[in-house]
Amino acid sequence: MNMYVPIQGFISSFRLLDIVDILLVAFVLYKLYYLICNTRAVALIKGLLVLGAVTVVSKVLDLHVINWLLQQGMTVILVALPVVFQPELRRALEQIGRGRFLRSGQGINTEELNRLVEEIAAVTESLSKTRTGALLVFEREVGLNDYIDTGIFIDGTVSRELLGNIFIPNTPLHDGAVIIRENKIMAAACLLPLTSDRSLSTELGTRHRAAIGISEMADAVVVVVSEETGAISYTYGGHIYRHLEVKSLQKILLNFLRPAPQGWTNIFKWRPAK
Ligand SMILES: Nc1ncnc2c1ncn2[C@@H]1O[C@H](COP(=O)(O)OP(=O)(O)OP(=O)(O)O)[C@@H](O)[C@H]1O
């Protein structure tokens, strides 16, 4: 039998639409990768891959009992997934619903971004020196209107003076978080969800737990200044990165908030901020 016949058959039946089909699947997989990278879901996927590999090996070796147990376990895991990963699923659906899944552009230009980051660096440095507690949430693709609604609406351009004023202790706006959208302070004194992660250091109180909590629910990047130590930290994807220098914070913010390249041609060149 000629072994090239199936390949020839495959090539001759290949249509232009199949290329479109493959490109679409590649695009959706790429976007899904962006949604889950730097989240808890990565560890889960690794776990599922290991379980899948063990299931295949047990099937090949005819280990009936182990194979049966693994298959039953898989069913339970698949049913439990939507419950455990409700925040991630909600985030994914929100992005699709807001049309962001297909959008690569953001509303802030490089000049505005540089100014924003300068202002944030200046105010963070001064808050850190005076040991004034602060919580700054930078909205990215996932909308934070639910949390903006819990605070006091401001809608003012970001400046070191305005932010410095907001966080003066014992004033009405200092308690809670400031939420920033592009280069606007949308609201202050916002209430954020606390993380339920029990493995966190006991040094971290509610301010830091709120910063981690919101970063689990959305793709926001959050800057925290500790009232107790003046230490600067940021959170993203449910992780906290502590004791930052102002210079590193500037680089991190530039990276996270930089405008994405515009247009379809650049969509595959774009990389999620790490
Ligand atoms: N759910 C929340 N959402 C927004 N802000 C919160 C929330 N819970 C607490 N905060 C802020 O954190 C402050 C309390 O900080 P706390 O001392 O418990 O935290 P911490 O992580 O130890 O921070 P610090 O190092 O600054 O003391 C509150 O006054 C309030 O401003």
Automatic annotation (TrEMBL):
PANTHER family attached to this UniProt entry: DIADENYLATE CYCLASE
Protein name (database record): Diadenylate cyclase
Gene responsible for this protein: dacA
Pfam families in alphabetical order: CdaA_N (PF19293), DAC (PF02457)
Coiled-coil regions, chain positions: none
Keyword rRNA processing set for record: no
Entries under HAMAP family matching the protein: DacA
Domain DAC intervals: 86-246
Keywords: ATP-binding, Cell membrane, Membrane, Nucleotide-binding, Nucleotidyltransferase, Transferase, Transmembrane, Transmembrane helix
Signal peptide: none
UniProt catalytic activity: 2 ATP = 3',3'-c-di-AMP + 2 diphosphate
